[in-house]
Design goal:
Conserved hypothetical protein from pyrococcus furiosus pfu- 392566-001, ParB domain; 3 domains; five-stranded mixed sheet; 9 strands
Length: 341
């Protein structure tokens, strides 16, 4: 995504309201929403002290012979523009509100013009020092969605969502980068909510709210559920049950799954029950689902091989169970933090 900086033609120019097109929906970060309270405040301010901050418009067409026939597009200042329209309707007997002061920008003819202007307007509305209303949460959701599907954030991500593949990690990567750069002051929960809402606009359930367990988190859960010693390197055997607990992650799942096998081959006997507790440290829901499937398949292969080839294990599993730690905490998944699946 390239940074777009429009070229100023006039820093201050009076333009008739009817010459300005204000309904360019695809390039309006405001999502066409009107804050009525803010609109009233702006009207009152303009009535008392006139317009203090010009609106921004882009040239559509310049008539060198008759300026009144020139046309412009509104690019920033939708509430100020609507306030002028309201005042003009209320004061039809005067010409005080027939024209509005504008910063006039050169016409943008590039391929990504609409997206450039949308991104630029969103940035304008984020400036805290400006007197205008900042982007609402929904304004940012709609802006991000438009920029995503247009390919402005990432061409590959746009292709993915066009084919309904919202779950691909590249999609959220593009969105998270944009949110981080353009929506300051959001909490982690608000970022998650914004991603969820953007997905919803595309008809997708957002695979968010993924719990990433630390070693201490896992240790506490194992102490609680298995009564293992509070100290010592894993795997550990429970104090109250003859069970050895092995912990696997997306980074070591295959070696962990083989570890009970090595122990059995080394000792020649299965000394304890073997349970594997699995969780992912990285990645989103797609990777979590894939790795869960991988480790379960591998455990099945191990148990089936021993059952088929070693008489002593015909009715005995080398690995008794694979317990999955609930990580996908979004409502649609129904998993809970700290519970085994």
């Amino acid at each position: 995504m390239n940074k777009f900086t429009p070229t100023v033609l006039y820093h201050s120019k009076l333009i008739k309201l009817e010459q300005i097109k204000s309904n360019e929906k695809e390039s309006q970060a405001r999502n066409q929403s009107v804050d009525t309270d803010n609109l009233k405040r702006i009207e009152q301010s303009i009535s008392q002290i006139k317009l203090q901050n010009p609106i921004a418009v882009e040239v559509v067409f310049i008539d060198e012979q008759d300026e009144d026939k020139s046309e412009y597009k509104l690019r920033d200042g939708s509430h100020r523009f609507k306030a002028y329209e309201s005042l003009q309707a209320k004061h039809k007997n005067t010409i005080n509100y027939d024209k509005i002061t504008c910063v006039v920008y050169e016409k943008h003819t590039g391929q990504d013009a609409a997206s450039d202007w949308l991104q630029w307007q969103h940035q304008q509305n984020e400036h805290l020092e400006k007197t205008c209303r900042r982007n609402s949460f929904d304004d940012s959701v709609v802006t991000a969605y438009k920029l995503l599907v247009s390919g402005y954030l990432d061409k590959d991500a746009a292709d993915l969502v066009a084919n309904g593949n919202w779950a691909n990690p590249l999609v959220n990567c593009a969105l998270e980068d944009w949110i981080s750069a353009n929506c300051k002051g959001l909490s982690n929960n608000q970022r998650e909510e914004m991603l969820e809402n953007i997905h919803a606009k595309g008809g997708s359930l957002y695979n968010s709210k993924v719990k990433k367990y630390t070693r201490n988190d896992v240790r506490k859960l194992l102490v609680k559920n298995y009564d293992i010693p509070t100290k010592g390197r894993l795997p550990l055997t429970s104090n109250s049950a003859n069970t050895t607990v092995w912990v696997a992650t997306d980074q070591n799942w295959w070696t962990t799954a083989l570890s009970p096998v090595y122990r059995v081959l080394n000792t020649g006997v299965k000394e304890t029950r073997n349970d594997i507790v699995f969780h992912c440290r990285k990645g989103g829901v797609t990777q979590i689902d894939a790795r869960r499937k991988d480790i379960k398949n591998m455990v099945n292969v191990i148990n089936n091989w021993f059952s088929s080839n070693i008489p002593a294990f015909k009715h005995v599993k080398v690995i008794d169970d694979v317990k999955i730690l609930g990580q996908k905490l979004a409502k649609q998944h129904g998993e809970k933090d700290g519970e085994f699946i």
